[in-house]
Structure formats: C-alpha cells, structure tokens
Design brief:
Number of domains: 3
Helix content: 10-25%
Largest sheet: 5 strands, antiparallel
Bound molecules: uridine-diphosphate-2(N-acetylglucosaminyl) butyric acid
Order of helices and strands: EEHEEEEEHEEEEEHHEEHEEHEEEHE
CATH class of the largest domain: Alpha Beta
CATH architecture of the largest domain: 2-Layer Sandwich
Distance between the termini: 27 Å
C-alpha cells in the first residue's frame, strides 16, 4: 500500500528534529508500489528516507522522498548451525536485534539499540562494539529505479567498509533497498573485546545473549542522547584514518591518544571523539546547537535549531580539530 503526503513537515521524520519540508513523500511497502510510484516518470530529485537517523536536512527537499514501511521478518532457512532471515527494509533495526536475542540467535546483539531501519543498515554498514552489519548481511534486495527490475546483491558485491558501501557510491540514487537477508548463528559467539562491554557483561553474570544486549543498551544509554528527547544523529563524524607517520607524530605528543590498526598497515584509525574532546569542545554550546557532554562525536539540537545552524557549528568543530591536531574529520551524517 502507498501513502502519499505533500509539503510535509519532516520534523518527526528526522532524529535531529529540524523543521524542513519535503515537496512529496510516499510511504511504500513493496517493489510493485515503487513501480507504481515511478510509473509516471522518474522525478528529477528523489531519495529514500528511512527513519531519518543519519541525515541532517539543511533546506527543504524539493523532490520525492520514499519511506519503506513494510516490517516483515521471514525465516528463510535453519540449517542447524544458524538461521537465514529476510527482513523488510521498514523493520526497526533494534526490533530485529531484540527479536534475534529472544530466539537465541547470535550475531547482532552488539548492535543493539542502534537507531534506524534495516534498509539503512547496509548503506553505512552500521557498527558498534566490534561488530558491523556486514558481518551478518548475506544479501541485499533492491529495486532498480531506471529498469524497474528487482535485483539481489551478494555481500561481496556490496563494497562494505568502515561506514561505507556501494550504496553510498555507484548505486547512490539508482536503487531502493527493499529487504536485507541476515545470517545469525545458534552457536554462542560473544564479542566482548570492546571497551566497557566485557565489564558490563560480567557485572550481569556472564556472556549470555540477553546480558550482552542489556550491557550494550546500558552503555549506549549512558553515553548517547536519546533522539526522542534530544535531537541528534548519533556520531556526527567518522573516525579519521591517517598515515602511520602522522599518527606517530601525534602519539609522540599525546601518548594516551586512542588509535586502532586498520587492514592497511600504513594507515591508522584515530578516535574523532577523543580529538574533539581534547580540543576542549566536549559539552560546548553555541546557541541552539552543542557537542554532547558525554560523547564528543555527537552533536545535539538543543531545541529549535535549523539544519544550517547545526552544519555551521559542525564546520567550526572540524576547523578547530584541524587547527589543533592537523587531522581532518569527515562527517558521518548525510548532509542534505
Ligand atoms: N573518547 C573521548 N571522548 C569522547 C568520546 C570518545 O576521549 O567524548 C575516546 C574514548 O575514551 C575511546 C575512544 O575515544 O578511547 C573511542 O570512543 P568510543 O569507544 O566511545 O567509540 P567512538 O569511536 O567514539 C564508535 C562509533 C559509534 C559506536 C561506538 C562503539 C563511529 C563514527 N562511531 O564511536 O557509533 O557506538 O564506536 O562501538 O565509528 C554511530 O555511528 O552513530 C555511533 C554511535
């Protein structure tokens, strides 16, 4: 079923809660709905808006926004070792995480409480606490706008990287993700290597699925603002990857600087949150915008901020980090 809206206020459809409008918005369920929506011709501007959790609107959207609302979770196979699920793009990611934990299926418990819909998970390859969506995504179901055909992409064809995929590049503006196939395991495979997870899990009595989910939820609730209360889009910046030489220069000055190996031995990942924090910006407020006081990677709308205000503030944060450390931090949030 299709539901269409015109000149719709997007305030309740973006987690930053900025007040911009879209000329048209259509909620859809199936590929046939999409075919129908594009039957009269492909509009000059169109895009997919899921839960709006990783977007900053800086102006009205003069085009067609498509929002998937179908929420089926289908068990495709259970081969003893694990299960294969087909999950509609409109399912809330955390509903899927809860569903898996309830059934004893391992693989996405560390990704508990990540805001957003399943259709968005492959786009930026969501990740937290040592897990990424690419670890469980087997296939992505797509609607190809120009041809009107449905396609299925294997994981290997998705170009997954740190907060990266083909959907941000070659396939951007060409396809609509309609469903994702996810493989989960019956066998326990706890991933506790990251930060506070091990301690919080131990405090709950050990590495059961439920304890891991609860530990992750508790850590996230303590550090990240609830978008239902304070407008934000999670990490506003990506963690920068720099040359080893640059990392070593910084480490000589700041021996406590967090740094992580990457697949490329010549490149090192740094923590943008730490850089912003050490630049003295954690908790900094400017008008209606601020840096979250418990996690410097997150920018918050303190109430009534426009997207342009948030963006101007973000640019100042980037400039100050560059001036202080000589490191460029890129935005993780999509700026529209
Ligand atoms: N740090 C600070 N000050 C801060 C924030 C962080 O010093 O204000 C330091 C921490 O002490 C730690 C390091 O920086 O040594 C990394 O911080 P943290 O473990 O909190 O993780 P992160 O790199 O800031 C990333 C993801 C988060 C994800 C967490 C946990 C990105 C852009 N962000 O944050 O994802 O929840 O790891 O895995 O990769 C998101 O994408 O929206 C998001 C919240």
């Amino acid at each position: 079923m299709i539901r269409q809206f015109e000149r719709i206020n997007l305030r309740d459809r973006n987690s930053f809660r900025v007040e911009q409008r879209a000329a048209r918005l259509a909620e859809f369920e199936t590929a046939d709905d999409l075919r129908q929506l594009f039957a009269g011709g492909i509009p000059a501007r169109w895009a997919v808006l899921g839960g709006g959790n990783n977007i900053l609107f800086t102006r009205d959207y003069e085009g067609l926004l498509l929002t998937p609302v179908s929420r089926r979770i289908e068990l495709l196979a259970d081969d003893g070792g694990g299960v294969l699920l087909r999950v509609d793009a409109g399912v809330e990611w955390d509903d899927l995480a809860a569903y898996a934990v309830e059934r004893g299926w391992w693989g996405i418990e560390n990704l508990s409480l990540i805001p957003g819909r399943v259709g968005a998970a492959p786009v930026q390859n969501i990740g937290a606490y040592g897990c990424e969506a690419k670890d469980v995504i087997e296939r992505v179901h797509l609607y190809e706008v120009v041809s009107g055909r449905e396609r299925i992409l294997d994981r290997a064809a998705c170009g997954f990287g740190y907060r990266e995929s083909i959907f941000k590049h070659e396939l951007r503006g060409r396809v609509v993700i309609t469903a994702v196939e996810v493989r989960l395991s019956h066998r326990p495979q706890p991933k506790l290597g990251y930060g506070d997870v091990e301690r919080e899990v131990a405090a709950r009595g050990g590495a059961t699925l439920r304890n891991i989910r609860e530990a992750v939820c508790a850590i996230r609730r303590a550090k990240l603002p609830d978008p239902a209360v304070t407008g934000n889009a999670g990490s506003f910046f990506k963690n920068p990857v720099v040359d080893r030489a640059a990392a070593e220069r910084l480490l000589a000055q700041h021996p406590d600087m967090p740094h992580y190996a990457t697949e490329d031995p010549g490149r090192v990942k740094l923590a943008a949150g730490w850089l912003i924090d050490r630049a003295g910006l954690k908790g900094k407020v400017e008008g209606r915008v601020g840096v979250h006081d418990r996690q410097a990677l997150v920018l918050v709308n303190r109430g009534g901020a426009t997207g342009a205000e948030v963006l101007a503030f973000a640019r100042r944060v980037q400039d100050e980090v560059a001036a202080r450390f000589g490191v460029a931090i890129d935005t993780e949030v999509n700026i529209w």
